[in-house]
Each structure stands twice: as C-alpha cells, then as structure tokens.
C-alpha cells in the first residue's frame, strides 16, 4: 500500500447530535488496513469483532456498552491489517464532552506488534479507583506511525466510540505491578505489589505456557499467605514462555479478579552429556543453540545478526544437513553458540566434522588473507572465551570431511558453552567460500571402546566403480538404502536390501548411497556407476 499525506486542512465542526464530542478525522482513511478491526477486553467479557474500516474512518458504536469497574485494570487487544499502529483509549470521566489527552481520561497507550497480516496491539486499560460509578463515553483511536489524538485531524487511522458503564470498585482488588525474576531453566519467582484491599487470606497465582487469561472459576496453580508479595514457581519446562496472573483472596468468600499478567521465558537446560550429546543439524541450528554477531573473542559477541545458515555438508547434495557460513563480505563476524553443558563429571571430549568449499559448490577453496574461523570454549556460560582451534589462510580446511576432536580434560565447568566464530576480517579478499560444521558431539572419552566395535560394522561397497550390481557387506544390519545423484535428488530407495543392490538402471555418474542402519545410525558411501 502506498502511503502519502494530504496537505488539506480539515475543519472540524460541532455536530447537531445529542453529543457534543468532536468527530475524529483521518484524511488518509483506514481502507489500507490502518483500522480497528477487532477490539476485545476478555476479562470484561467485551468482544467487538471484524468491524473493518468504518465509513469516514469513524465508527459510532455508542449503542454498545462495555461494563468495567473502578480500581480494576483490563487487558485489551486491537487487531489491524497494517503494521506500525498506535492505539490510545480515552474515557470522558467528567462528562464535559471533551477527552483530555492525559490521565486520568487517557486510560491506555499501546503500539502494535507483528507484520501487516498479523498486526495486533495488546495493552491495558487502567480504571482509577477514584472514578465515580456511572455512564461515560469511551473513544478508541488508532493511527499509523503516530499516536492518535482525541480530535484527530491527520494521517491514516480509525476511531471507534463506545458507551462504558463504570461500576463501583470491587470490595477485593487484585495486586498490581506483577513482575518476574530469578528465572532458571525450571524455576522463576513472580512478585507483585500488595492489593490496596485488606487481604485476609493471601494471594493465589496461576501460570500457563499459553497466554490465555484465567477466569473466575479457573483453579489456581498455588497460593501464598497475605504477607507474601512473591511466589516461587518450580518444575517448569526449559526454554519455554510462561504467563502468570495473581489474585487477592480477601476472605474465603471474596476473591479479586485476576491481575494483569507478567511473562518470562525459562532458560535453556544445561546438558549433562552422560550419554553422548549430538547435534547433526537435521534441525538448524538445534535446540537452544544461538546465533550472534559482532565483537571478537575477547569482547564476546555484541549483536544478534544471524549469518550462519544450513545446507548439505560440503554441498554434497546428499540431504545431510549441516551448519555453514559464507565468508566473502568483509563485514561478516558471525557466532554459532552451542547449548550449555555441565562437564563437572569430567572425562569428556568434543568432536565435530568440518570442511571448506567454494560458495555453493563442492570444489576446494582457499580462505581470504585475513579471514579466520575459530572454535571457542567458555567455562562461564559464554561471558569469556578461550580459543581451542584456529583455521585461516595458512591452515585452511580441505573440501573433504575432517573430524576435529579435543579432549576436555581441563574443562570441567558446570556451564560450558562452545562457539564457532567466523570473521572475514577487514581485507576484501576474492575468496568466496563456505565453512561447514556437522555432527557436533560432546561425549565421554570412555565411549572409545564401543566406537571401535561400531567401526567394525562399517559397511563396504564393491566393486566401485560398478556396472549393474553394487554389493554391500553386512546387509543384515541395513534397514533401507537410498540413492541420490550429485544434485541431491533421490533416485531410488531400496527397503530391506539384500547384499546385491541392482542399480543397472542408473545413468553413468557419481551417486551417494545412504545406508539407513537398523540401529538408527546412517552410513554414506560414494559410488560411481560406469
Ligand atoms: Ca473499525
Ligand atoms: Ca473530559
Ligand atoms: Ca548432518
Ligand atoms: Ca577478508
């Protein structure tokens, strides 16, 4: 949608209706999506859905009544069909026909989040406890890129007017100013400011990983006594968003409405690699892995741009996903950080496969003159870093898979994080290449024995090159075979194969034979059809 401004000055007149309120004007109107579409106040049971763009950008809905109470705060939501909206809500508490653009008549200010097709403004309407119960006019204003005014005259947007009936303050008011802190991977503490009512029994709290407010009949998750202004939450799920509400229990028969919510996200769980931890990047970047940018190995990362991406390891076209970074642009400083590990039991090592190819190709590439990729470790959760390995122009990886292995004898931190740091330096080099990482593992060094026995089960394929039949050893260990061409296209799948794979119908060329083993592992063989 094209935005433009009209320079016309709109003159506002007083209308000869029963009310004397100004009619807000949005000269660029709301037909492009700068509208109040649905307006809801769930805890007041008010819902005005799918109103679209009003004629003249003003919706006179004073025949609709919203019932609110003095001393209560209400969460509201407005949906739009264009981004960057600003919403303000006023109530003419002194019934003088004018909305003051300041408290107490300005009861809500909020801005939208989300893209055009999912643009929503979430905010809170606070009704002061001092408001005299009665019937008042409410105005909801919405404007693109600027805060609307009660008697708006410029821009894109829409306003709705409603009738609001304010009831007396309840005898038991909710606590205020909820906040959360001390967040770990499985716990948090929620705090609040005491209710202004006399709280005889205590407070109840409710938490959920879904942002749906509880109702009066929703069972509380827990409770604390009247003198407590915080509650510990435990047994939470790592790396999860939580929403919390609290209400006052003034007496056994008198509970407040639920408060406005607070939210937090639990930390990622620290992994104890008792059984080997592996990230094969089949999901990128992997659960609780993080990207970052900027800075260096002394300062740590300084920004949150994401330069690493995923694709076939060494661009082999075999569907084996990996993490990779393209070093070509001299501003690139990219971090890929692992999930945190607790290595305090000792006896671990870290391993991964790596390699370098030309950008979007399988051929080898040099690294630029001042380019560097480093493998880092932090024993304080990612605050300070030590370099374990450096690759650069003098030490560039090949375009075949190489396995890196480092014995973590001296690293036994309870919050150890690893990172891949890639920098293109300041020199603009002609090299345009990708650095790949796959099969990142943290494992006990005592697994070595079983690995050796596993290695004995390596499948051999012969003859290679082959003409019609490719024979595989130990076919009884293989569940299925998939054959891909060099472009990564799957050309054949063989379930429960015998030792002779009949591939006479393939054209000449290089193929990737993936053996899906019955134990869940995979082996890959390159074979050439003559
Ligand atoms: Ca509307
Ligand atoms: Ca007023
Ligand atoms: Ca992989
Ligand atoms: Ca460079």
List the helices and strands and how they pair.
Blueprint: E1 39-41, E2 46-48, E3 58-69, E4 73-80, E5 85-91, E6 106-113, E7 119-126, E8 134-144, E9 157-167, E10 176-181, E11 188-193, E12 202-208, E13 222-225, E14 230-233, E15 241-251, E16 254-255, E17 262-265, E18 277-279, E19 290-293, E20 309-312, E21 321-327, E22 333-337, E23 348-358, E24 372-378, E25 386-392, E26 402-407, E27 417-423, E28 433-444, H1 448-455, E29 461-462, E30 469-472, E31 478-485, E32 490-495, E33 500-502, E34 509-517, E35 522-529
Parallel strand pairs: 3-9
Antiparallel strand pairs: 1-2, 1-4, 4-7, 5-6, 5-8, 6-7, 8-9, 10-11, 11-14, 12-13, 12-15, 15-16, 15-17, 18-28, 19-22, 20-21, 21-28, 22-27, 23-26, 23-28, 24-25, 24-27, 29-30, 30-33, 31-32, 31-34, 34-35
Bound molecules: calcium ion (4 copies).
Summarize the structure.
The protein has 530 residues and is mostly beta strands. 2% of the residues lie in helices and 43% in strands.
Find the CATH superfamily of the largest domain.
Answer: Galactose-binding domain-like
- Estimated radius of gyration: 32 Å
Query: Could you give the count of β-strands?
Result: 35
CATH hierarchy class name of the largest domain: Mainly Beta
Helix content: under 10%
Number of domain units? 4
Q: Sheet bearing the most strands, described?
A: 9 strands, mixed
Q: Specify the structural class.
A: mainly beta
Distinct ligands: calcium ion
């Amino acid at each position: 949608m094209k935005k433009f401004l009209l320079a016309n000055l709109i003159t506002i007149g007083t209308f000869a209706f029963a009310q004397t309120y100004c009619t807000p004007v949005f000269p660029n109107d709301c037909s492009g999506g700068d509208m109040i579409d649905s307006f809801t106040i769930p805890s007041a049971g008010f819902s005005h859905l799918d109103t679209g763009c009003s004629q003249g950008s003003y919706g006179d809905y004073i025949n609709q009544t919203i019932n609110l109470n003095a001393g209560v705060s209400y969460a509201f939501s407005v949906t739009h069909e264009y981004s960057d909206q600003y919403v303000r809500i006023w109530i003419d508490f002194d019934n003088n026909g004018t909305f003051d653009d300041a408290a107490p008549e300005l009861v809500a200010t909020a801005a939208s989040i989300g893209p055009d097709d999912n643009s929503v403004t979430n905010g809170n309407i606070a009704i002061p406890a001092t408001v005299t119960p009665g019937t008042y006019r409410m105005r909801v204003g919405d404007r693109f890129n600027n805060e609307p005014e009660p008697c708006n005259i410029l821009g894109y947007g829409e306003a709705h007017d409603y009738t609001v009936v304010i009831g007396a303050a309840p005898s038991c008011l909710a606590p205020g100013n909820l906040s959360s802190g001390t967040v770990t991977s499985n716990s948090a503490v929620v705090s609040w400011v005491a209710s202004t009512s006399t709280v005889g029994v205590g407070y109840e709290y409710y938490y959920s990983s879904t942002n749906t407010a509880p109702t009066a009949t929703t069972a509380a998750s827990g409770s604390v006594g009247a003198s407590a202004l915080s509650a510990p939450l435990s047994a939470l799920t790592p790396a999860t968003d939580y929403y919390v509400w609290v209400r006052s229990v003034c007496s056994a028969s008198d509970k407040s409405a639920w408060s406005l919510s607070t939210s937090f996200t639990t930390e990622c769980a620290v992994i104890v690699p008792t059984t080997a931890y592996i990230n094969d990047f089949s999901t990128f970047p992997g659960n609780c892995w993080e990207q970052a940018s900027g800075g260096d190995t002394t300062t740590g990362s300084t920004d949150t741009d994401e330069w690493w991406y995923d694709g076939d390891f060494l661009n082999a076209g075999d569907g084996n996903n990996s993490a990779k970074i393209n070093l070509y642009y001299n501003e690139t400083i990219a971090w890929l950080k692992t999930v945190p590990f607790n290595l305090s039991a000792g006896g671990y090592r870290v391993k991964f496969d790596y390699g370098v190819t030309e950008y979007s190709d399988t051929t080898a590439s040099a690294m630029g003159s001042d380019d560097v990729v480093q493998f880092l470790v932090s024993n304080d959760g990612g605050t300070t870093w030590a370099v374990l390995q450096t690759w650069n122009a003098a030490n560039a990886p090949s375009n075949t898979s190489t396995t890196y292995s480092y014995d973590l004898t001296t690293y036994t931190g309870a919050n150890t994080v690893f990172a891949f740091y890639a920098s293109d330096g300041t020199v603009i080099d002609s090299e345009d290449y990708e650095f790949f990482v796959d099969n990142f593992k943290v494992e006990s060094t005592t697994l070595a024995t079983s690995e050796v026995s596993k290695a004995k089960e390596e499948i051999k394929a012969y003859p290679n090159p082959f003409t019609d039949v490719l024979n595989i050893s130990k076919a009884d260990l293989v569940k299925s075979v998939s054959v891909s061409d060099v472009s990564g296209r799957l050309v054949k799948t063989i379930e429960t194969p015998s030792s002779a794979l009949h591939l006479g119908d393939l054209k000449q060329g290089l193929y990737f034979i993936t053996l899906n083993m019955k134990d869940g592992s995979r082996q890959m063989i390159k074979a050439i059809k003559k």
